[in-house]
Design a protein that fits this description.
Order of helices and strands: HHHH
Protein name: ATP-dependent DNA helicase
Oligomer: single chain
Organism: Elysia marginata
Keywords: ATP-binding, Helicase, Hydrolase, Nucleotide-binding
Helix content: 55-70%
Mean pLDDT: 88
Shape: elongated
GO molecular function: helicase activity
Radius of gyration: 27 Å
Number of helices: 4
Low-confidence stretches: none
Structural class: mainly alpha
Strand content: under 5%
Number of strands: 0
């Protein structure tokens, strides 16, 4: 985790070497990048790619989106009609997945 006080100190020390009249944007950018790389070096991260389930289709995806929209509407309004709409969409998603 980057400590703001340590970052501030490091940047301040790095900028002391420059003359105010000769600082360019590229030079400042390079200095800040070097400072950040010293304090927080880049780390490689592994990303797993899982294969798509054979039963999952575009029809199921759209039905789930409608279900989530109906659920959000019901949770926001708490109206009985919106709850029934949500329950209908929920049942539809179950049926599509079972088929």
């Amino acid at each position: 985790m980057l400590e703001p006080s340590k970052f501030s100190t490091e940047v301040h020390e790095a900028l002391k070497t420059f003359n105010n009249s000769t600082i360019s944007a590229d030079c400042l950018d390079n200095t800040l990048r070097r400072t950040l790389d010293q304090l927080l070096p880049l780390q490689a991260q592994t990303i797993l790619q899982r294969p798509v389930s054979p039963w999952f289709s575009l029809c199921i995806k759209v039905a789930k989106q409608h279900r989530r929209t109906a659920e959000r509407r019901w949770r926001k309004t708490r109206l009985t009609i919106h709850r029934h709409i949500f329950m209908t969409h929920r049942h539809k998603v179950k049926t599509i997945i079972q088929n």
